[in-house]
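Possible race condition, two jobs.
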Amino acid sequence: MANGVGRPVEPAVFRFGLVRRFMRYFYPNLTFEDELQNLTARPTAAAQQTVHELAPVVSLLANADDTILLSAVPREADVPKSLRHARFVNRSSLASDSVIAGARHSSASGSPRHVDGGQTLVPWGWTPAARSVAALIGMPDDFIPAEAAVQQVNGRRFAARHDPVFTDHHCEFPFGQNSFGQLCRTVSEYETAGQRLCSVGIDRWVVKPQISHAGRNRLLVTGTHRNAQQSGWLTKHLKHPDGVYVEPWVTVREECGMQFEIGAAAHGGQIRLVGVTQLMNDPMGRYLGSVIRNDTVLEERWSAVIQHGFSVCRAVQQAGYFGPLGIDAFRYDCGCGRTVVRPCNDINARLTMGRVALSLRKELLPGEIGLWCHVVLPPPAQSPTECPDAGILQGTQATVQNFRKMFAPCTHDSEPEHKLPFELTCSDVRLVHTSPEQIDHQPVRLRTVLLAGPLLPRLLEVSKFLRSPSQQTTENTGTASKMTRPAES
């Protein structure tokens, strides 16, 4: 069933004289990086809650009747219209799912189900757990990238080979123009890198392990002196044979996320640019949202970076990986006062939130820009009038008085006549909900919404208002004020 503005109809496949649907199972293992590192520590309750709250948004990538495998399934009444086309199934009941049971029966009888019209697993990223689920539904190994390839292309050692600096003027870079950062495998190499940074006037840098994401599990250092905590972190991560990656800590002006789809070399090997988003991160590099457009403005602005992205994709393909790939890039201020480009800040051989955001381009009306953002709702005890930007929506239908109504849980059973629409229209900004209201009878605090309108500055104002005061930060948008990243130990 079509849903939203121009949502594509799910493909059908003609096989053996029958038309049947192309069935996909989405497996949002959002702790992908932790699984790659074989971390055995149980996630904190807060981390688990975040995963539960974000996992359902993966259905934005799904077609009608695709299945989303969740560890916590929301009630149908709590699911917004934008997510209702997909089927939510608890992972614990996966083995008893009737469709999977049919796949095992067909496989046992010698009738192949995967090729063109069979069942496919679409994980956030390929981990051993995801491979087990793929085996359960009968997905052939030929359609799954090798485990070694996934590890390799998600590592800093691989990314370091594709991490130059783009500039059209002379400037002294600490590690040369061909390498934004430096791989270090020993304490001595790390100290040498720190001395090199200081010699060119850079006294702050970030140290990243081989696997990390979203501003987590990294070391921010000011000066060559290390405290005991920093030394312990460094010693721990230098045990990895590929060491750590040292980068200068810079003032970022603007970021973009490129989303590619890489075909398997054995099946033609096509590399396709799915789209480009303008990234919004907080000062610590954590994801806040993505700007999406239906024109070519972002592709033209980042054209040289996109070409570099294609070269990275070819190297990724040669390493044996295929599937979704995200590459982040940014413009930053160098020491000489000019703005230069880092075309390959991160390589994520998996799905990304930017990829999810791009799926919402079909929801945009002609002339609209979209901003898909993550919003942490304030605690219930906090009054909306306490928000420091409470007046930012003056002049629209969405005032401070109805701020809570935008995200208030709907009392579907007790007061169905008071059910709020899932799309709230302001005078110049449309708001489309893309997260459930509740999961396991608990209100979802980390919500996602699509803001759509003709003016990007207006969307940024509204997104800032929607975030709780504790999350108010300066966005990396190219239009915001100068952002300086603080240090942490």
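Job #2 (started ~2 s after job #1):
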Amino acid sequence: MNYRLSQCRNRTLFTLLGMLSAWWLALTCTTMALSINLTFDPTTPYFDPNGVNRTNDVQAIMRAAADIWEDIIEDPHTLNVTYRWGDLDGNMLGLDEWTWPSGSNRPNQATITFDTHEGSGGLAQPWYFDPTPRDNEEFGMREELYGRLSSADQVAWYNGSPPEVLEASFQGRAFANVGNPDSNFDLLSTAMHELGHALGVPGTENGLGDGDYDIPVALVGGNLMAVKDDHGHLLIENAAMYSGLGIGERKQLSATDVLTAAATASWNQIDLPRKDFLGGADWNTAGNWIGDRVPDAEDDVFLRLGSINASLSANGVAKNLRLNQGARLSVSNQTLTVGKDVSIHGVSETAAELSVTTGGQISAGNIFLIGNGKLTMWGGTVVANRLEFNGFGSEYSGQFSMLPGATLNVNRLVGFGDTLVFLGNLG
């Protein structure tokens, strides 16, 4: 069953008091990033379908949803949110009512209501309260990229020329698990969605009257593109800001969700948690990444266009790094530090390659050569806990080259079927 996720109501404050309040907040606010202040109104209780009082359990979920948005939007702004339970009409899961000061395109006050009963006065709404809301281990999450959409969906959901690697959605279905996420509505998805309305995806068109949201070109590598509007929601069915949510479904914020908010609320400092390299030669140039920002140590990073041939002009970091479809990355006289996993993918002639040359260093938790992905050491140093070859039968096997002058320091080598010859130094 797919329920309508939200409805939005908005009011603009044109009063002198509203203008003075906004002016005073601007003078007194010292935050350098988005700050979402949450106030819980417990007046209306919520009992789950088993009769258990879960009224207060919404607080941890709402805090996690606010933290996710705060991690992404780094422009200075304060949003005050009151949230509560209530018996909403029809098949509504959530309702967001927000206001903004005159002359601003950013709401500063919002009230969010989560539904307590199916329909009006029906059975208790079945909610999933994730005990670990900052990870998605109960869900099989997957990305949808613009370039992998059908041509019909591309035309139906976007205008212009979006990048092939633009993330359209990041969605997953629940596994059977403790708390039954597979048979309940995900409260975290709903909370992120409702906050998204208060942060820029409005209840009406974006004011241009053309039925879409024009994405700032700096955030998408200079591409001219827009995301089509559906009465204050996106048309992309798996996107967080789509108007519906299914039982057992999680929708995390995708690049398209965030960039749509940026288009309407003029957010300029965007830190996407999953960053895709668009092109160019330099890892350290912000404009070469979707979101116009170089990756940090908390980001999952992707180089997945065969046309990419990049290098580092300064040190680089990532949480996870994935190269595929023939992309190439070279590290020379710099250090690339990946906190968790590097995976280098390849099939036949489309093998991706990560290389290190004299003076360069790659430091990672684990390095996986998948298919015939390549790790080439012309010099320099590679330090990792684990280096694993994961080929596809006898046809493809990871390719590792290590020339004199290079140093490999790993705790474990896995997956080799033949004898290895190292011409460099083993640490």
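Confidence is low (pLDDT under 50) at residues 8-31, 203-207, 392-396, 417-422.
Logs attached separately.
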